Amino acid sequence: MKFFDRAGRLARHARQSLRRIAFALATLCALAFSGAALAQSSPIQAVAAENFYGDVVKQLGGAHVSVTSILSNPEQDPHLFEASPKTARDLHRAALVVYNGADYDPWMDKLLAASGNDKRIVIVAADLVGKKAGDNPHLWYDPRTMPVVARKIVEALDRVDATHKADYDANLARFLASLQPVQIKIDTLRAKYQGTPVTATEPVAGYLSEAIGLTVRNARFQLAVMNDTEPAASDIAAFEQDLRGKRVKALIYNAQAVTKLTRRMLELAQASHVPSVSVTETEPAGSTYQQWMTTQIDALAQALGEPQR
Description:
Elements (H helix, E strand, L loop, with lengths): L1 H40 L2 E7 H11 L3 E7 L13 H9 L2 E4 L7 H9 L5 E4 H4 L16 H16 L4 H14 L1 H14 L3 E4 L5 H7 L2 E3 L1 H8 L6 H12 L6 E4 L5 H12 L4 E4 L9 H16 L5
Parallel strand pairs: 1-2, 1-3, 3-4, 5-6, 5-7, 7-8
Helix pairs in contact: 2-6, 2-7, 3-4, 6-7, 8-13, 11-12
């Protein structure tokens, strides 16, 4: 009898142990499932070196992405940027990184190399449009750049989060359609003002001017200012003569990287009644890329002689 009692107790103990194991396994499965669901519902972490690329990522990713833009202050000279530990941490956690390249943001290469995340997808705008160090790096002013970058971003989002592919693809179609009015403005100005001479303190809007067909004078002066070197005396004199003699229709002025010399040229343009157009290297707060480009194109159109609407 004792043998059977003991056997019964062992059997009951075994059943209880099995139930506990089953409960533990069920709990673990539930936790794993909820963790996976949480991870799947968590937004994709994206970092953009410049806020106009960050804005495009956000437009394309919507609620499915969380975007950090490193350069986002239009009051700050982007050439004076210094990376912080937070920047390195953001890049380490990012699943998607977008930056300009063409030596505009050379600190990105160093930060990416040091942050140790081989799984992230890195998009370099310059590589997509065939530009390199030594070329004009202000690629976002070229109307051909953003459509190429946007397609690459959506390709990356589709890879990282295939569940929401339909959303990303729809957002891409919407974004590309929203660029059409900008292109129409450029084409309209080109038809009317192709060959019109203008000048600039830096080649910030160089690609835009080229798309409109403007003849941009004083290239050596612009390159010197962009590279933070003193322009030759002859180049300064040529610039001043263009303004005093009203040989140019407008002055395109980089309002974000101001020096004593560029401020002097702006004042000379104003004194000579040459219209000036302020452009920036960073997208203004509360604006989209499309709105930013439209505002600056409209200002340039007005300077060229288009009636204000």
